[in-house]
Design brief:
It is built from eleven helices and nine strands. It is an alpha+beta fold and 269 residues long. It folds into two domains: 115 residues, L-fuculose-1-phosphate Aldolase, CATH 3.40.225.10; 119 residues, L-fuculose-1-phosphate Aldolase (3-Layer(aba) Sandwich), CATH 3.40.225.10. Strands 2-5-4-3-1-6-9-8-7 form a nine-stranded mixed beta sheet, sandwiched between helices. Strand 4 and strand 5 form a beta hairpin. Helix 6 crosses helix 10. Bound molecules: 1,3-dihydroxyacetonephosphate and zinc ion. 1,3-dihydroxyacetonephosphate (13P) binds next to loops.
Length: 269
């Protein structure tokens, strides 16, 4: 068996959490990531017959039975993942009942997966239905995105339009737009169900007064989506009430055409 600490998927989790912390997105234990792994890639590092503990999930994820994820721990600080992956991360497999997670590695101090596990698993189910290559669900608390969400109406098309008008990269990176959920109680199955519904259509979903979810086939894709929203939200907030050079709709349409992209319907005039 190879040393799991050097596994590419462990390294990617360490790098992503460290970058997110340094960008100021993940205060204290803020944020969580889950990453769908292939059985074959994990079996190079772990005996898949050896279950360390069984952890109830509090919801049914039948469509994910047998699927394996590396996931951040609840209450764990992103700034600490790199120096102690085995305590701050865990590898779990959804058990045959669909309501239990079998711990295969990690959560060494007796910990468990993120409190947002329902949202993560339900969102994986939704994204896999629209994209077979999907693997990552990433949640974080980026400052300017939350600030922009605080001062803008909770209208997905209007919010998306404001982003596309503030940065020419925005429509190219997220032509499918940004979904928005109202302020809800986090850490519940209810917010998981609502997010999973939104995430069928949008790879990015803002949780009002809380943060954002990004998804993708790779860590770079999920990270890049959130990074671009956050950069654009920063521009929007720094220029709020003063902007005189908003990107016109015909330029946004031209950018989409140039890159063969279909912008979310009903946003551009
Ligand atoms: P966890 O520490 O349980 O992952 O919670 C952090 C968070 O961001 C809640 O939304
Ligand atoms: Zn959060």
């Amino acid at each position: 068996m190879k040393d799991i600490i050097n596994a590419p998927f462990v390294r990617e989790m360490c790098e992503a959490t460290a970058n997110m912390y340094r960008l100021g997105w993940d205060e204290r234990n803020g944020g969580n990531i889950s990453y769908l792994l292939e059985e074959k890639e994990v079996s190079e590092y772990l005996d898949l017959k050896r279950v360390l503990r069984k952890i109830p999930t509090s919801f049914s994820a039948e469509k994910l039975i047998g699927r394996i994820f590396i996931v951040t721990g609840t209450g764990k600080y992103f700034k600490n993942v790199e120096k102690d992956p085995e305590t701050n991360l865990g590898i779990v497999r959804i058990g045959t009942d669909g309501t239990t997670a079998e711990l295969l590695w990690g959560f060494k101090d007796g910990g468990k997966f993120t409190s947002e596990f329902p949202t993560h698993m339900m969102s994986h189910i939704s994204r896999l239905e629209v994209d077979k290559k999907h693997r990552i669900v990433m949640h974080t608390h980026p400052t300017y995105t939350i600030a922009m969400n605080t001062v803008c109406p909770l209208d997905e098309k209007d919010f998306t339009h404001k982003l596309w008008q503030s940065n020419t990269e925005a429509v190219i990176v997220f032509p499918d737009g940004v979904g928005i959920l109202p302020c809800m109680i986090c850490g519940t199955n209810e917010i998981g169900i609502a997010t999973a519904e939104k995430i069928k259509k949008f790879r990015l979903v803002v949780w009002t007064n809380h943060g954002i979810y990004g998804t993708g086939a790779t860590m770079d894709e999920a990270f890049g989506l959130i990074e671009t929203v956050e950069k654009t939200a920063q521009i929007y907030m720094l220029t709020l009430g003063k902007a005189i050079n908003i990107i016109p709709d015909d330029i946004i349409k031209g950018l989409a055409k140039l890159w063969n992209l279909t912008p979310l319907e009903g946003v551009l005039k």
